[in-house]
Specification:
Elements: H1 3-15, H2 18-25, H3 29-43, E1 48-51, E2 54-57, H4 59-86, E3 92-97, H5 99-104, H6 106-116, E4 121-126, H7 129-137, E5 143-146, E6 155-170, E7 180-182, H8 183-188, E8 191-194, H9 199-210, E9 220-224, H10 227-235, E10 240-243, E11 256-262, E12 266-275, H11 280-306
Length: 307
């Protein structure tokens, strides 16, 4: 029996809606319906009752649901055991990370990981969030750290850090001594932004969408591929940008200043992503360290700011 059928059945049973299940699984609604139909053919009975309020388990469906979690757990354990038995390569971990995370988050994490797991070799591939997601999806790296909200049925997504982007200006900018600006001021000011596919740009686009605006309405002066390039341009006084507080180092506090935009909140989650075929035991020590470190970084960035 295809494991995807169990996963679909479990999701439909828990959300009570074919359409919501299809969105969560990133499948078409017809594919979800077909999966349920295949299970019903196999068991020769109805598993769901369709009503105007959604779908509900039948008595047979309730019985099957009690077994599904065990079935999925056993399938996952058996796959892990087989992969482990066939694996003879030395212990290693390949990490894909978005530029912001690789440059400003990983330097705090990797030295600790190397101390705790000195026998494990590490490699880090840097790219924008969309490219890292594709690397994990195609098993080109073991674990990814991204800034965008991306989904696929074969990818597990675990948020680990909440980020609030701010406007940054250089020392010679007229806004350097201000704490906030209006949305109208922000829209008119020359702006440096990241390329499509970056998590920073996606967060800005999503925030604008909430207030019925899009990036075409901003005064975009330059599109640049790295945060470092953007910071260099802002320091020169050629415009402003929207970046994470993570990227402002203590040494840059005197030359870069962060402001809020009244009426526009730019929030995003950093997420850990893994392929379902990757052994949890292979990546869990790294994931645990990321989660542990993120709470310290969050307290340092935002706890101190609140106090």
């Amino acid at each position: 029996m295809n494991e995807q059928l169990w996963t679909t059945f479990k999701m439909v049973a828990e959300v009570g809606s074919l359409s919501q299940a299809s969105r969560s699984l990133n499948l078409s609604q017809s594919a979800v319906t077909q999966h349920i139909h295949q299970l019903e053919q196999y068991y020769q009975c109805s598993l769901f009752v369709r009503t105007s309020q959604g779908v509900h388990l039948t008595e047979a469906g309730e019985i099957l649901y009690r077994y599904v979690n065990d079935l999925l757990h056993i399938a996952h354990e058996s796959r892990e055991a087989i992969i482990r038995s066939r694996s003879s390569r030395p212990q290693s971990l390949s990490i894909g990370a978005s530029f912001t995370i690789a440059e400003y988050f990983l330097p705090e994490i990797l030295p600790q990981y190397c101390k705790r797991h000195s026998q494990c070799s590490l490699s880090v591939m840097m790219a924008n969030s969309r490219a890292v997601f594709e690397q994990v999806l195609h098993k080109q790296c073991d674990v990814g750290l991204i800034e965008s909200t991306l989904h696929h049925p074969q990818i597990a997504v675990q948020p680990f850090f909440s980020d609030c982007l701010q406007v940054i200006v250089g020392k010679n900018h007229a806004w350097f001594d201000r704490e906030d600006i209006s949305l109208e001021e922000f829209v008119q000011e020359p702006l440096f932004i990241r390329e499509p596919g970056s998590g920073t740009r996606s967060a800005l686009e999503e925030a604008l969408k909430i207030i019925n605006m899009d990036i075409q309405q901003l005064n975009v002066r330059l599109v640049l591929a790295t945060t470092q390039a953007i910071k260099s341009m802002v320091k020169q006084g050629f415009g402003i940008s929207v970046l994470s507080p993570l990227v402002i180092t203590p040494e840059e506090d005197a030359v870069l200043h962060q402001l809020e935009i009244k009426g526009l909140t730019i929030l995003r989650n950093f997420s850990i992503i893994t392929h379902h075929d990757v052994l949890p035991s292979h990546v869990n020590p790294f994931i645990h360290l990321v989660l542990e470190s993120s709470s310290h970084i969050n307290a340092r960035l935002y706890g101190l700011k609140r106090s």
